[in-house]
């Protein structure tokens, strides 16, 4: 994600040397049982736009965007890289690129943002935003570059040409060709997703080596709402994760992650309500958003699966008490966070909907009952038939190799494998269940019963792939992938005769095969229910509510009264003003009333015909929680360029001036229901307001939480402002408070 600045000259950095560093066996070493965010604290104060891959050596590698790592450092790291044995404790190991290393099309001083690292064929490829190229002297002519390496640790070599070159924009300048993310489909085709607010998110097919865009791109997410894409395949669906709102507004940053799904990598991607991510009234189901604790601006995600099969989301966030790396209004401090990613009713959500964690949490599973990295030549823990040998941290041979450790129950087994001459190779469980790569197929068998799935036509068995097998009760699911990143080449399911209990084995026939990173761990237990969302019970609180049946009741108070606002026919009608509340102007009217003490939910219904597709910046109407002109949270349906969104804006005073940012909640209709759920934090006394919206008054989408200090008394009100051209009137049916 961009910082809206050009990269300056980068200081000398440490080149990666890990390719020559021997790996250390962690077999049998238990990982941490608990952890807390941010996981990048030992690496730096900031580590933005993070992604994680598992290397051939069994370690995990994380990559971040060009920034200084520490407060006061002022040294811009060109894709800082960190290593971990357990996904929790990370060590900085250097930068991917040296101070003078850049592709030939990059301008001097170009920065590298939002790296994405994948295995493509027999090499690793890093896709990265190149912020400045030689196409334009004005800069901001973004391109997507690629660099290749034999391992995740480098050394990295840039391709001579960009994967996606700078694209002139119809509105002037260059489209934001940033935030790349690669995906390999079950047919073996490679795709690249890229783009941002100016131009939207597109997907293009890549050449087999992953270094060139081929064919015509397809728009998969509308402009002016989404960026930071990440795609994975789960249960036959393709899920497009994308970040929305502003990444970098300091203490008012409301960045969050939403998702849509499709049956094709080219879309159309739709949200849980069936609304397309390409629509003017753009869809998007929330996956991750701030919940009122220390973390705000939770976005730009990657994805990783631990050895138990549990999925995790890696992302950056901002500590609202320490939002900038150094001086106020400079570089936003965005450390790397890790949280559990659950799948409930077919949709991903973080911590079952609870959002970012702050405090001790169960750690990822990164070791197992069987955990073999083959870092020594000792095979005493295995029984051998055939010829096997260990060299350079890998096992090679043919025949069968069976662990002396017995496993049972619900388990996940993994192995990295290459068929270097074998016609069949794979993993066995209980001496009877086998999953093999054979004859261009992934085959699972249990005695005489079997199931299989085809591998891509261009599948190269001599390339390294990951084989993962999950057994839950009598159900087996196996998948083969290049990089364990939701990019399966084949998935096969088989109903077993009985649960598997016994040793795990490796098998190769017809010639040798190579194995590494063999593990068996207890299978994760999936979350089945989401955490409860705010609900209303009983009748509205009559003393605080107004149905607008007979003018405004006596409890309303104006800030800058607008005489054009009238009540008739059971509705408040308010022509949208050519005014606003943000910044220092403070010219808009605000209609307010006192709120009840304690926890409550306030609701209104607003009809506002903003049309579609056309530019109507920034007409809006909705609810507001208001302390004063420089401290408020505004929930409104709003026109943002050609899109129509439900924005949850927030302004607060910081370092002597007002700072405004916001988050995006749901999809508006012409008539949209809006709610703010108020809660007082028992520990801090802070006022927490969570935003919700609905298109029909029955199905609600809940989003971000903004907070107010304990010593404030927020009132609740209505607003209608942002621009009077073309003339449009907001109509409010009621304002109701509920317990």
Automatic annotation (TrEMBL):
<dbReference type="Pfam" id="PF04616">
    <property type="entry name" value="Glyco_hydro_43"/>
</dbReference>
<protein>
    <submittedName>
        <fullName>Family 43 glycosylhydrolase</fullName>
    </submittedName>
</protein>
<comment type="pathway">
    <text>Glycan metabolism; L-arabinan degradation.</text>
</comment>
<keyword id="KW-0378">Hydrolase</keyword>
<comment type="similarity">
    <text>Belongs to the glycosyl hydrolase 43 family.</text>
</comment>
<feature type="signal peptide">
    <location>
        <begin position="1"/>
        <end position="27"/>
    </location>
</feature>
<feature type="site" description="Important for catalytic activity, responsible for pKa modulation of the active site Glu and correct orientation of both the proton donor and substrate">
    <location>
        <position position="179"/>
    </location>
</feature>
<dbReference type="InterPro" id="IPR023296">
    <property type="entry name" value="Glyco_hydro_beta-prop_sf"/>
</dbReference>
<keyword id="KW-0732">Signal</keyword>
<keyword id="KW-0326">Glycosidase</keyword>
<dbReference type="GO" id="GO:0005975">
    <property type="term" value="P:carbohydrate metabolic process"/>
</dbReference>
<feature type="active site" description="Proton donor">
    <location>
        <position position="227"/>
    </location>
</feature>
<dbReference type="InterPro" id="IPR050727">
    <property type="entry name" value="GH43_arabinanases"/>
</dbReference>
<feature type="active site" description="Proton acceptor">
    <location>
        <position position="49"/>
    </location>
</feature>
<dbReference type="InterPro" id="IPR013320">
    <property type="entry name" value="ConA-like_dom_sf"/>
</dbReference>
<dbReference type="GO" id="GO:0004553">
    <property type="term" value="F:hydrolase activity, hydrolyzing O-glycosyl compounds"/>
</dbReference>
<dbReference type="InterPro" id="IPR006710">
    <property type="entry name" value="Glyco_hydro_43"/>
</dbReference>
């Amino acid at each position: 994600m961009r910082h809206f600045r050009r990269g300056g000259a980068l200081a000398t950095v440490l080149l990666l040397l890990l390719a020559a560093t021997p790996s250390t066996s962690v077999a049998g070493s238990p990982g941490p049982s608990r952890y807390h965010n941010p996981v990048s604290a030992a690496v730096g104060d900031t580590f933005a736009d993070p992604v994680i891959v598992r290397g051939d050596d069994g370690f995990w590698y994380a990559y971040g965007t060009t920034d200084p790592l520490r407060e006061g450092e002022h040294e811009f790291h060109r894709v800082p890289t960190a290593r971990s044995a357990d996904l929790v404790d990370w060590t900085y190991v250097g930068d991917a690129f040296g101070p003078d290393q850049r592709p030939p099309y990059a301008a001097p001083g170009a920065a590298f943002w939002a790296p994405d690292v994948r295995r493509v064929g027999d090499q690793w490829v890093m896709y990265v935003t190149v912020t400045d190229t030689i196409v334009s002297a004005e800069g901001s002519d973004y391109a997507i570059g690629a660099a290749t390496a034999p391992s995740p640790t480098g050394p990295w070599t840039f391709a001579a040409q960009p994967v996606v070159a700078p694209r002139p924009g119809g509105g002037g300048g260059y489209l934001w060709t940033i935030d790349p993310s690669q995906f390999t489909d079950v047919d073996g085709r490679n795709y690249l997703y890229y783009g941002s607010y100016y131009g939207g998110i597109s997907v293009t097919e890549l050449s087999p080596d992953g270094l060139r865009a081929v064919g015509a791109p397809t728009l998969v997410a509308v402009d002016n709402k989404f960026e930071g894409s990440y795609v994975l395949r789960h249960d036959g669906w393709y899920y497009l994760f994308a970040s929305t709102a502003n990444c970098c507004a300091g203490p008012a940053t409301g960045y969050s992650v939403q998702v849509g799904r499709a049956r094709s990598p080219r879309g159309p991607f739709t949200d849980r309500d069936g609304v397309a991510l390409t629509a003017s009234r753009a869809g998007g189901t929330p996956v991750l958003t701030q919940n009122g604790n220390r973390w705000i601006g939770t976005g730009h995600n990657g994805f990783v699966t631990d050895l138990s099969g549990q999925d995790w989301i890696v992302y950056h966030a901002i500590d609202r008490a320490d939002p900038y790396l150094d001086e106020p209004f400079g570089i936003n401090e965005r450390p790397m966070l890790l949280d559990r990613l659950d799948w409930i009713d077919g949709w991903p959500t973080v911590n079952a909907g609870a959002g970012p964690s702050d405090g001790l949490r169960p750690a990822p599973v990164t070791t197992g009952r069987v955990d073999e990295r083959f870092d020594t030549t000792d095979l005493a823990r295995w029984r051998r038939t055939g010829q096997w040998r260990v060299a350079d941290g890998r096992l090679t041979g043919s025949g069968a190799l069976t662990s002396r450790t017995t496993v049972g129950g619900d388990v996940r087994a993994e192995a990295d494998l290459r068929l270097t001459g074998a016609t069949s190779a794979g993993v066995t469980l209980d001496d009877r269940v086998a999953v093999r790569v054979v004859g261009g197929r992934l085959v699972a068998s249990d005695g005489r019963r079997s199931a299989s799935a085809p591998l891509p036509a261009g599948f190269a068995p001599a390339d390294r792939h990951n084989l993962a097998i999950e057994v839950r009760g009598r159900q087996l699911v196996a998948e083969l992938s290049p990089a364990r990143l939701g990019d399966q080449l084949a998935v096969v399911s088989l109903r077993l005769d009985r649960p598997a209990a016994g040793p795990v084995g490796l098998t190769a026939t017809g010639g040798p095969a190579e194995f590494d990173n063999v593990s068996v761990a207890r299978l994760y237990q999936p979350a089945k229910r989401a955490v409860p969302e705010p609900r209303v019970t009983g009748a509205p609180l009559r003393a605080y509510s107004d149905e607008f049946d007979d003018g405004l009741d006596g409890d309303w108070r104006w800030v800058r009264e607008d005489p054009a606002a009238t009540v008739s026919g059971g509705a408040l009608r308010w022509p949208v003003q050519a005014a606003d509340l943000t910044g220092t102007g403070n010219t808009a009217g605000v209609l307010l009333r006192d709120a009840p003490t304690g926890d409550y939910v306030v609701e209104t219904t607003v009809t506002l015909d903003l049309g579609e597709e056309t530019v109507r910046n920034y007409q809006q109407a909705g609810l507001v929680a208001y302390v004063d002109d420089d401290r408020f949270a505004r929930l409104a349906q709003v026109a943002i360029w050609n899109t129509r969104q439900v924005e949850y804006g927030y302004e607060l005073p910081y370092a002597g001036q007002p700072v405004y940012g916001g988050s995006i909640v749901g999809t508006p209709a012409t008539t949209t229901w809006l709610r703010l759920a108020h809660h007082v934090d028992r520990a801090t006394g802070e006022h927490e307001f969570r935003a919700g919206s609905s298109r029909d008054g029955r199905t609600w989408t809940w989003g971000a939480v903004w907070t107010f200090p304990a010593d404030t008394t927020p009132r609740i009100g209505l607003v209608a402002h942002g621009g009077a051209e073309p003339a449009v009137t907001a109509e409010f049916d009621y304002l109701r408070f509920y317990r």
